[in-house]
Specification:
This protein is α+β, with helices and mostly antiparallel strands. It contains 21 helices and twelve strands. Strands 1, 2, 3, 4, 6 and 7 form a six-stranded antiparallel sheet that branches. α14 crosses α21. About 6% of the residues have low confidence.
Length: 449
């Protein structure tokens, strides 16, 4: 039976490079080629001595290399692919054209070949595939940064999803991160050095957690319990006897990608209701449960046939101190009251800035907040598809380095990553959300207002 599945798989998959030296050489070679093209672009602009034009030239060079970067990230899996996915979570976080290329890492990441897949499953479960599954679909449901997921059927008739970790990902983690950090920082082709450092550190933390599927199964069980009284939120339950560090078998839940499903709905009120429900779910997790599903890329969210929200992939889950989550609400309250000095004090109290870095001038901070918090400024609904803030923020930060240096505390990096992913999801949906009312409601429940 297993041989039939392998035959059905054909030659679509690709081998995952396992050797740390070969992975390092491949990523290092990519960095060298990209750096060369970017230096050439800089030299072409140097006579003008125009910083903005130099940055634009480097960005253009990065775009020219975009497909090569995406191809290597997808083939390498692990840290390389995870960083690409993080960068693409929010279309306004980096150049939109580059984000669109990176978004293919969610949709079109090359899966591993079936021979490698079968070996991983049999090694993890310590038995042949056909001794565990009555049917195993050789075509993956999705291929992500740490592993890929296949649909299967157990002998008792249960439909399951089987998550299989790529070989060598855990062992090559540190080497991959070092090479990707070099690639990102060279010429600052994606973002500032400070943000690049934060993303690499975040990717390390996320990957360390995500390579342990036993831990993920525990998170699935926990979130099933947290949302047990919410039938409009579904989380797949793990199959405990088929959970291993590199293989995770769980309940299969049918659904369409959330953004595609919402956009296909003709009724605008239903679209807005579902978008609001999506945002409210994360607001509830962070501000009232103080735990967060922290991997917000689009492939992790589905809508089932009854319009229930399906949450997938709990490899990256983060706990938060209640006082930190409440401090975020206090900052919002200070913003609404136009008390920027108080907002800055709250930010400093929870760790914004580092090593005594001075806070930006209140008027500078206020101008920045007016740009990024526009969705929360007014009552009524807000449509993110019309919210084009990338260019304005990029120009503003070039002229106000104090904002770049006022980096958030490490504890909140994953929170801001989730915010970026939620914004990206809302940008892709043809829906509107009343965010200020939602935020003020949670402030009232937490006793902030």
């Amino acid at each position: 039976m297993a041989k039939d599945w392998a035959r059905l798989a054909g030659e679509k998959g690709k081998k995952v490079e396992k050797g740390r030296l070969r992975r390092a050489l491949k990523l290092g070679g990519l960095a060298t080629r990209v750096t060369g093209s970017m230096l050439k672009a800089q030299i072409g602009r140097i006579s003008r001595r125009d910083t903005d034009q130099n940055l634009d030239a480097m960005a253009s060079a990065a775009l020219e290399n975009a497909q090569r970067i995406v191809d290597v990230m997808g083939q390498m899996k692990g840290a390389a692919m995870k960083i690409g996915q993080i960068l693409s979570s929010d279309p306004d976080m980096i150049d939109p054209a580059f984000a669109e290329r990176l978004a293919t890492l969610h949709r079109e990441a090359p899966p591993m070949d079936f021979v490698t897949l079968a070996a991983q499953i049999e090694r993890g479960l310590d038995r042949p595939i056909d001794a565990v599954f009555k049917f195993f679909d050789a075509e993956p449901l999705g291929a992500a940064s740490i592993g890929q997921v296949h649909r299967a059927t157990l002998f008792d008739g249960r439909e399951v999803a089987v998550k299989v970790q790529y070989p060598g990902v855990a062992e090559s983690l540190e080497s991959d991160l070092q090479n990707m950090a070099t690639l990102i920082k060279l010429g600052r082709m994606f973002m500032t050095k400070e943000r690049a450092d934060a993303f690499v550190a975040e990717a390390r933390d996320a990957l360390l957690k995500e390579t342990d599927y036993i831990r993920e199964a525990e998170s699935l069980t926990r979130f099933c319990a947290l949302f047990a009284d919410r039938p409009d939120i579904r989380v797949p339950a793990p199959i405990p006897e088929l959970v291993r560090p590199t293989v995770l078998v769980m309940e299969y839940i049918e659904g369409r990608p959330f953004d595609e499903a919402v956009n296909a709905i003709e009724d605008p009120q239903e679209r807005d209701r579902l978008a609001t429900h999506f945002v409210e779910t994360f607001v509830h997790m962070f501000h009232e449960l103080h735990v967060l599903h922290a991997d917000p890329h689009p492939g992790n969210f589905l809508l089932d046939a009854d319009h229930n929200l399906v949450l997938l992939d709990f490899g990256c889950v983060r706990e938060f101190r209640p006082e930190v989550a409440d401090a975020v609400l206090h900052m919002l309250d200070a913003y609404w009251e136009q008390d920027v000095p108080r907002l800055i004090r709250i930010a400093q109290d929870i760790g914004f800035g580092r090593d005594g870095t001075p806070a930006p001038e209140p008027e500078v901070f206020a101008e920045y907040l007016d740009m990024i918090l526009e969705p929360l400024a007014e009552y009524g609904t807000f449509r993110f598809a019309d919210f084009k803030v990338h260019g304005r923020v990029r120009t503003f930060l070039r002229g106000h380095l104090s904002m770049i240096r006022f980096v958030p505390p490490a504890e909140l990096l994953l929170y801001f990553r989730v915010l970026a992913g939620m914004k990206g999801m809302m940008t892709r949906t043809n829906a509107a959300v009343a965010l200020r009312r939602m935020a003020q409601d949670v402030c009232e429940r937490r006793g902030i207002r």
